[in-house]
Amino acid sequence: MATPSNPNRVHVPKPAKRSFNKERQLEGNALLRNQVNHFHELERRLRAELETGIQYQDVKTEGQAAAYIKKMTEILHHRVFRSAGQ
Amino acid sequence: MATAGLNNLKHIVVLMMENRSFDHMLGSLKAVDSRINGITGNESNLDSTNEPAKVQPLAEFQGQLDPDPDHHFTEVNRQLYGTTAAPAPGAVPTMSGFVQSYYTQQQNVSHSRKIMYYFPQDKLPVLTTLARSFAVFNGWFSSIPGPTICNRAFAHYGTSFGKVTMDMFEIKPPYVSIYERLLAAGHTTKLYYYDTSSSTMEVVNLLKNQPQIFATYQQFLSDCDKGQLPDYSFIEPNYSDHEGDGGGQELASDQHPDHDVQAGEIFIASVYNRIFQNKALWQSTALLVVYDEHGGIYDHVPPPACTPDAPFIAPASDTGTGATFAFDRLGVRVPAILISPWVAKGTVVPGPEDPAKGRVFEHASIPATVTSQYIGAYDNRSPREKAAQTFLDLLGDTARPDTDCPVFNLD
Question: What's the CA gap between B73 and B141, in Å, rounded?
């Protein structure tokens, strides 16, 4: 909270180092699971153009989800910039 | 006549966090400011053995809400009414089924009672300081008693196009996103996601069709420093623990259970600090910090009825309650704070607890406000957005000095 020397300066504690867990299972996070599902739906619709090289059924942890999402996001950006001739 | 704060306004920034209720995050503030509609400490739900489970200031940053509390439409119905059966028309939610809903996931009575836990003020120095320093809303509700994607859709489109679920794959004319409206009107806008590994929750409709409106959080920081922030910015936190591009650890900052709430505190503070540090930007920006929905976590205020989102009606097969849903009542209350030097210190925007002066906000208030500020008259909007309250009237005529505003020490 505010420190005595400056009543408006608020100290913000850092999270514990053990908080990080990229092996956390996606089944414990409905939001992230759904985000992966949305990207997979998009990959299915645009299959002719998109090739992530990642098997959707193998995406089971947060770290794996992040790798898949990164690949798909980069492909979608590249796809539009390419079609715009940039 | 517009206030000086409104005349100075050039940028609106919205930061939408994940899955925490008002009482869970800010309910403790009632003890220090009775105008804030938090908790008295006597609120309770019956657990599955019919014993009362009271609210307690025992919320932890991580580890308590695992598995993710169910907040799909059917279970939110149980949380609101104590049953998964559709309520009678006009029935007021009893807010009585949160513990029993969480019990269904693990059949563990002790664990289910943790859904009533809330954070004491000193565990959330960022959110509680901002709430007391600027304007906190007693009556900002999620748009739908349901999950993330359909709720976030109300922030982007002013409607969820009839969806109460997570599978929102199509938008329906004549409605378009706030980003498309602004671009068509010659304004600038960006949707900043944390990084490409976290990306956006607006995958199918916006990222697929308009990736040029997206940028990373690093770009947001740079845009703040250079004074190049667009007219309207929407920020998404980091949704996952993952390795950064440079090989370091990127900790999820969305506060979605079971991610570390402190990481979200730091993220909120970093957004605020960056705007605050550029004095020209600070004087011309309004920052709204808001949560998309309650994530299945207890709040004591019954969500009110609202204008139906005709012609959209969610089918019974989607609601799971045995009845259709006409989008005629709101979801559970969430934290919302409006930050600007033009907001009077300690502003509490009354909600439903004040029948005379109370105001009700929901996520459709976001495109409604942005459209009103930058475009003006605009007819192709959902009934919900047309009826939504806007919030820029909270900017007054007097700019507070920097010495009257908090600074967060993140070192």
Answer: 15
Chain A hits for B242, CB-CB cut-off 8 Å, are 22, 62-63, 66-67
Contact (CB<8Å) B129/A22: no
Q: Which CATH number fits domain B4-38+120-404: 3.20.20.60, 3.40.630.30, 3.10.20.310, 3.40.720.10?
A: 3.40.720.10
Q: Pick the residue from chain A with its C-alpha nearest to B293.
A: A31
Contacts of B155-158 with C-beta under 8 Å, sequence gap 24+, read: B155/B14, B155/B16, B155/B234, B155/B292, B155/B363, B155/B364, B155/B366, B155/B367, B156/B202, B156/B206, B156/B234, B156/B367, B157/B367, B157/B382, B158/B364, B158/B367, B158/B368, B158/B381, B158/B382, B158/B384, B158/B385, B158/B388
Contacts of B343 (CB under 8 A, 6+ apart): B5, B134, B135, B394, B395, B396, B400
With contact defined as beta carbons under 8 Å apart, do B233 and B188 qualify?
A: no
Contact B208 A42 (CB under 8 A): yes
Question: Is A31 in contact with B406 (Cβ distance < 8 A)?
Answer: no
Inspect the interface and report whether the beta carbons of B243 and A22 lie closer than 8 Å: yes
pTM for the full model?
0.97
Residue A9: helix, strand or coil by DSSP? strand
**pLDDT 10s digits, B182-211:** 999 999 999 999 999 999 998 878 888 888
ipTM reported for the complex, 2 dp: 0.92
Number of Cβ within a 10 Å radius of residue B402: 13
Point out the residue among A8, A21, A62 whose CB comes nearest to the CB of B407.
Answer: A8
Q: Where do the domains of chain A lie?
A: 23-83
Alpha carbons within 13 A on the beta-carbon side of B113: 17
In tens, the pLDDT along B14-57 reads 999 999 999 999 999 999 999 999 999 999 999 999 999 999 99
